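quick one, two chains, predict together pls
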Amino acid sequence: MNANRTPWRYLPTHALDVARGPLLLFVLVSAGLALVIWRLVANEARPPAPDELLSGLVSGTLMIAVLFATGGTAGVDIKQGYYRAYFSKPMAPWWFYLQRWLLGGVAVMLVPLFLGLGLQLAMGNGTGLDWEIFGHVALGFLLVGGVVLLASTVTARDWLLAFMIYFLQARLQNVKDLFEVTGNELPWTVDKLHAILPPFHLAAPGKDLPTGTDLIHALAYGVALVTVALLVLAWRPLGSGGRA
Amino acid sequence: MIRFEGVSKTYTTLVTRKKVAALADFSLELNRGEVVGIAGPNGAGKSTLISLLLGFLKPTAGQVSIDGMTARDYVESRGVGYLTELVNVPGHLKVPDALGRIAVLAGIPRNQRATAVLDVMTRLGLDEHASKRVKQLSKGNLQRLGLGQAMLGDFEVMVLDEPTHGLDPVWTARFRDIVRELRRPDRVVLIASHNLDELEALSDKVAILDRGRLQQVVSSTAESHIDAINWRIVFEGEPDVAAKLHGASPVEGRPGSWRVTMTRADLSRGLGELLRDGAVLVECTPEQGRLSSAFHEAVGR
């Protein structure tokens, strides 16, 4: 028997899991939203512009979509002990989970497409798609998905941890915006905490895509999250932490 | 091929930071062609030892190497056939799908995968459960699935952790045949089990662990322990004849079924005297297996 040891050999299985899981859900949710929009706004005299509507829809679903596409990437296998059967075979955990995470990213990137097609079917005046919306989604996936992947190395409830961090950062952003409007100085601790936590606000659809240092900050933060997660998967034995 | 050199593993509790030694200064060498057993009571360190062998844990001290590589490097590059103690396969998968996924990871080429999965299912009697999901399998069938996933692929190291756990007597016997088939000159098979008879029947040597320490290595080819085994003799006749035997235990039982025990060294002479004095021999059996004897001696209970 000539063994197939290519590092890509599990990719089709991962792809099938993503297609039958998150991708199918995204299609169904997009279809459901299209139906709702068709019932609510299609017959209005002045329906909203598709790009504004799409931006709102993506903004409202991006976080959940990323959590659904990436949640439990490694954490569930580690908690349930599935890793024992998987990684007694010739496969590196970091590589296995990177592939799964990236395919989750592909599924998330298709969300605007599904929503846009749904809008076209519901209202018939365009998909509202532009490249900027995909830029927001990619950046959002890198940041939120990066937090999930890193959290996944230590807990099966990675999605919950990521959601809590996202929620905290969103509240801190609200506080920061409020202080900027009133002209008061932001408390030092709030300012530092906001700076330390992932810059989710930079990826929020509905705003301009970040440029310059903001873009570098967001990209570097996301890449760092993923890199640290992969290093943990590569160096920390999966049975550590009482999981032997 | 596999070397444990002064391996220790200490766990630290999360809150109190108390240190618990799961394995201490363990050294053992396993060579190609051998079937090696690991025996020990609960909490002896067997599972920790296997986790270290597969690189799922790092030793606190010492080193584990397979074919000159660190355990994790070896497993990631060449793989190991591994039956986990508690079979961990996602419950929502159907049996062929679960095995199919492991076949992919095991490196079985696409054009041979279906045949390999079917072959394993047939050998282990899982073909009749092909339409079931893993979570619908009984304990015994789940164990067979675990054994099946360990057998997928062609690996030089096989690790079987409590392989007959949950198996009925028929499949326990079948498992012994399977292990005999797994034996190859270029392969090491490691079996961790509570079942001493099973280890004695299958292994070339058995390492006895207790409280994280290697107590003894019993070789199945060595004769040294045979003399230590007590033999039980059941006979009919007058009990007085046995009371005079050298090295025999006090006579117990009732008329028609008297029992004494004696060591192997005294056995032949004792039997001769019994029969000469008119006793009728009903039974003459070793009280416990050689490994069992060594095990109880090693763990002191």
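DSSP finds ten helices and 14 strands in chain B.
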